[in-house]
Amino acid sequence: MNRGANGSGAGSSEANGRSPAADMDRTGAAAESDSLTVEGLVAGYGEVIALDGVTVTASAGGITAVLGANGAGKTTLLRAVSGMIKTRRGRILLGDHDVAGRSPEQIVRAGIAHVPEGQGVIPELTVEENLRIGTMSWRGRRADRVAALEEEYTRFKPLADRRRKPASTLSGGERQMLVIARALLARPRVLLLDEPSLGLAPRVMAQVMDLVVRLSREHGLTIVLVEQNARGALAVADHGVVLNLGRVVASADAATLAADVALRHHYLGF
Fold it and tell me: pTM of this prediction?
């Protein structure tokens, strides 16, 4: 599936002299700098190795689905890429720049945004206060921040209607919109999504998946999508990677993985 030229933005728009809105429209050579390559990644928790030499490539402007059973290492992979856990070996290349070992704040500024599992809003804050967290790494004019917020309100109209309401009043689908919008305010080149459909009704899940496709096709955002719903993820992805016990057991275009009966039976559950 051809997603077109890349058009996502860098982690700190104003610091680089670009308007936030323009960051979603970059083309040409910039596309190559928006690929994400994980090479020989080893990471874990304490004495437990959760990722054992994992290599994954997410092409610029495409959707890469990371699949596997519980405990396969999917969430750990995203946490390692975003700096939430320290890597032990391996490289994490954003374009040709290795960001392994950097802090989460540095990785956000480099251009990688992470939407963790669980709709992690701060319920006591209003919708807009939650969104403003996404601009904390910005430097520069307040007017640019206001314009960026309005851009997300245009993209997510239910949030615009409830901008002054506490996040605790949102539905599950609206909370998922909120955390994705907050991540987009960091102007990422790569967006990491961990189980965005978790706990959502089928209709709302379809809306979230449609949003993922639009961010890739219309804005050229590079997306790494972790999903338990393998069928739904492969339906929207360009490429798929299957993890099992911290290792890559399959990597191919999404249609090939979806058609592999043995792979579906052993690792994907459909």
Answer: 0.86
